[in-house]
TrEMBL record:
GO terms for molecular function: 4 iron, 4 sulfur cluster binding; catalytic activity; metal ion binding. GO terms for biological process: defense response to virus; innate immune response; positive regulation of immune response. Signal peptide: none annotated. PANTHER family: RADICAL S-ADENOSYL METHIONINE DOMAIN-CONTAINING PROTEIN 2, S-ADENOSYLMETHIONINE-DEPENDENT NUCLEOTIDE DEHYDRATASE RSAD2. SMART domains: Elp3 (SM00729). This is S-adenosylmethionine-dependent nucleotide dehydratase RSAD2. It comes from Nothobranchius furzeri. It is a peripheral membrane protein. Keywords: 4Fe-4S, Antiviral defense, Endoplasmic reticulum, Immunity, Innate immunity, Iron, Iron-sulfur, Membrane, Metal-binding, S-adenosyl-L-methionine. The gene is RSAD2.
Amino acid sequence: MSLSSLTATPKVILQLCISTIHRFLSVLLTSLHWVRGSCKRPASVAPRLEQHEDQTATTPTSVNYHFTRKCNYKCGFCFHTAKTSFVLPVEEAKRGLRLLKEAGMEKINFSGGEPFLHDKGEFLGQLVQYCKMDLQLPSVSIVSNGSMIKEKWFQKYGDCLDILAVSCDSFDEETNQLIGRAQGRKSHIENLYKICSWCQQYRVAFKINSVINTFNVDEDMTEQISQLNPVRWKVFQCLLIDGENAGEDALREAGKFVISDDQFQEFLERHGGVSCLVPESNEKMRNSYLILDEYMRFLDCRDGRKDPSRSILDVGVKDAIFFSGFDEKMFLKRGGKYNWSKADMKLDW
Ligand code: SF4
């Protein structure tokens, strides 16, 4: 029996089976439709089939591995929620990372949940070190809320890390509290400045990620972002994902955080003078990330929810990626491939 099926809950296994059968049937039925000599493909399935055909050749150049779903924050719009507490054994995670490297991975990003939470950052540190030293990946990065990072971690693993992105949606503590981007009354903003200075000291490129939603859409962050001077400021439009932050079995209800495309555009125009800003609308975000969950299954977001493939540990990268829904063209269009190794960045440390 496979590792992931040993460890997944019966509900997860059932969901996985239904989803896989559903996808096989839809591809099969579409193929039969063609074999029987029909001259027209049904409009609803035609683009999906073409994408599957294309995806047999997809290279996992840049992968986001959400190895844990647990987090100490409670952001109201979170779209990768604590639906399980599962984390792979470290040796299995390394095996999966090696498979990805052999399939062409150049950049790995560790994310969650909060990646520094599990084993106080040791699990993460070991994977970061493995990817840089053993696999020699050009780029190793982390996205974190920043609250659990200690200077000791930088001393031990900082050399192996190219980029650290910290999430910050507001420079007003009250707004962070309202969003849920906080643990108790601890200052998220003070922490952000501390991590920024550690990144300078330990030579890690510093990035900021912000989710624009109803609570921060009118804010002007120009001054603080200019002070912090990140290499990239990623600005996301709040996104709804069924089963994560929308719909019946979701752990969050993010409807009240959603903003319109026009509101997002206004926010971007207000920050037009910030040269490191990289905007990401819902359209750009939806399928342009290769996302691996805690079982190392690719998540397909095309239908507005996250449908898992089988684990790369069970079927290999090529078969699993076939069901990832990854849109390589959009990945390139959103500038997904950039100067992502700190050795190549001209940073003023
Ligand atoms: S910090 Fe990230 S993972 Fe944690 S609740 Fe917020 S959005 Fe979700």
